[in-house]
Amino acid sequence: METTERESPEVGRARERVAWHALDAEAVLERLDSSRTGLSAEEVARRLAVHGRNHIARATRVHPVRILLHQFTGALVYVLMAALVISLAIGHWQDAIVIGVVLVLNAAVGFVQQYRAEHAISALMSLVSPGATVVRDGARRAISSEELVPGDVVWLSSGDLVPADLRLLDEASLRIDEAILTGESVTVAKHPDRLEGDGALPVAERRNMAFMGTPVASGRARGVVVATGAATEIGAIAEEIRGAERAETPLQVRLSRFGRRISIAIVALAALSFGIGLLRGEPLADMFLTAVAIAVSAVPEGLPVVMTIALAVGVRRMARRRAIVRRLPAVETLGSCTVIVTDKTGTLTRNEMTVQQLWSDGALYSVTGSGLDLDGKLLRDGVEAPIGPDSPVHQMLLGALLCNEAELRREPDGAQTRGDPTEVALLVAAAKAGLDRELALERMPRLAQVPFESWRQYAASLHRVDGDETVFVKGAPEVVAAMCDTSLGADGETPIDCDAVLREAERMAAEGLRVLAVAVGRDETAAHDVLRGNPRGLALAGLVGMLDPPREEVAGAVAACRRAGLRVVMVTGDHARTAATIAARIGLPVEGEVLSGATLAGLDDDALRDELRRRSVFARVSPHDKLRIVRTLAGMGHVVAVTGDGVNDAPALKAAHVGASMGLSGTDVAKEASEIVLTDDNFATVAAAIEEGRTAFSNIRKATFFLVSSGVSELLAILGSLVLRLPLPLLPAQILWLNLVTNGVEDVALAVEPAEPEQATEPPRPVREGIISRRLLERLLIAGVVMALGTLGIFLLEWDGDPDRLGYARVAALSTLVAFQMVHVGNCRSEHRSVFTLNPFSNRFLVIGVVASMGLHVLALHLPWTQTLLGVEPLSLATWGRIGLVSLSIVVAEEIHKRARPVLRRSAGGARAWA
Predict the structure, then answer these.
(1) CATH class of 9-58+128-236
(2) Rounded to an integer, what distance in angstroms lies between the CA atom of residue 778 and that of residue 711?
(3) Angle at CA 190, nearest 5°, toward 219 and 192?
(4) How many CB atoms lie within 10 A of CB 125?
(5) Is the pLDDT of residue 34 over 70?
(6) What CA–CA distances, in Å, run from 781 to 263, 742, 772, 789?
(7) What are the catalytic residues?
(8) Are 609 and 632 in contact (CB under 8 A)?
(9) Do 767 and 335 contact (CB within 8 A), yes or no?
(10) Can you give the pTM of this predicted structure?
């Protein structure tokens, strides 16, 4: 990486990335113009000026004032603002106050949500090591990691965070936890040897590299810095996060479209009423006030409040089901999802390696219990198998227990562990057979050990057993089997059949299990041969197969998603074979070979779309691959939810319509990039949250239908009176009172309506379907016409052409519309089910609201000051009786539509099929 004094930091960072893993250590040092004794202080200063400081650039913050002003944009907000101005101009202070409160509340909620939204880049800084041990001028020194430059030689030891991207020069038992980059739950053994492959080699397979922000689990190493800051792998992820635009939510799209359409309709109908009135010879001032009253009352100003409440209720319900919502619109977005892109480790699986199979002396044992459950059993042919101290499987578990550096303690609140997940899994399996590591070490003290090295592919531990030296070895099956002359059996040792052992190891691996072999050497010669690095003369005890198992409830959740018409796509950094095994266990279809990240990178956009239409499992993917999958699915018209926990998942989490991060194992970066945090790291929680999201949108739709149907009935009643050359059935003040008394509580009560059972199995809503669907539009027209006709009928009946009865008739018409709305709100509780099948007390708030609104209206008819203000008077019992009967007609009309529509649709479908 040669540079010149004239190069800017930007030019240095923008250089073509080198496949450092494909060069040997000396070639890397030569290319970086460095050496194992490090750089000089003068050279460091020069390179620091060229490459810049080793840190992740923070995102540019949007000014709070700009965020606040953004809340006052949108078609519906513009309509509300126009209504506010008109209400103030004509002196309707009550309406102005109501609309003003709605605007302020809506802006406040939106401001808080957006202000908290953009902190994902900042969270990356917590993953950058504050310090580093570096070789400068031939001597070790501790410096700030921000001062590192390409060519610096850095020392790593257990517990360190890797301070930059390094090409390893040498190492001793180095293992690094790369889960934040790859999603794999197992620590990675590192080595300094050159690797074959170009820059397309996945991060998870670059075993001679150490990446910025990953913690050193064990061992020590020395490496040379090959990339700093934005040029590192984690820096590239930061750029992906910065460039990933947060997708506009379906609710935002629908609300914007709804606002535009309703604003046009309101203005057109108000103008039509005004024009017809003038043509009829009505006074200009009266018709202007009437048109304004129609426009103001027709605006569903309660809708933003209803939306906020419905989403807030969804937030509370999701929290009870272990999903914490960070951004309010995500509630509804989940309900609109058509595809869930999920990672594997920790979401579909328990993120706890578990021994599942044991093979010893030709017998296969299954191990029950997963994770840290110590109460499992060893089964043979489905029956609990006794494990005697002299049995081969006992010796195998004893070897796995002693050749082990992990710790396992039984505590009142469960098992407590420390160490590599693979070694912890071996301790748990041994505990299920009654073995305890501490007690075993007391009886069989350790004399020496050979730590695991990636180039050796095995580890060994020498113990004194009954006065004799015994060595236990565990490692890769092909390596350990080659050390063995015999196999342990129930009747003693027999010659080993290496082919049979390797066939069994292949079978386990084909099931996605990670396979280890355990061997025993009981004489002094075998023990010392192992210590001298020439292992031979051992006896094979058996094979251990382990897996991070799927969560018990995930298969049911995946099946529920598929019944509801949602696709589930697994995208993981793990091995293809492991991904296929987990997919098969949870009921996810695996079509042929699992597509790998390397193959995916070579596909153009059209080919990727084809693969996404037929594949559900992708393995060994990079952060960019996952981001590309999410963007492609969104481009295909899907509403995409993404789950993830690592830094590698953050770009996709942010670019998705809704990102769900893990609360237990998730990094701060993933949480900041997501809209929802799952407190139990469980895919089943995503499925539960989708149910709540569907309920939230359904309730928004019910409340919208109720609000708009009220305005439509008023408009049609007034237009009908104008067309029929009748006196206006309502005065402007009465129109505004109707809007106030019917749309204040009932719409809010609909926002907290319980979920309907059919929502869990209905297919996702079409992406282009608006808040008012075709079904609701039909119901809206029917309800509007029925209520308008009923109102005009009562008006004509009570007026009967008598000028002295006109005022009374208007009060009767007003009361009819109030009664219609109080009855109609029951119809709005369900799109499909009959009102007679709904428990009226399952939503007590609605019952209270209806009683309160009707009582308030009746009270207004009798109070002197409201009589003067609204031009109203009390009605007779006979009139109330007629109003009651007429108002029930809306129930009849809605019930007929709910029952007839499915029949008509089936008939139409049959006719089309016949044709």
Answers:
(1) mainly beta
(2) 15
(3) 105
(4) 16
(5) yes
(6) 18, 19, 12, 12
(7) 343
(8) yes
(9) no
(10) 0.67
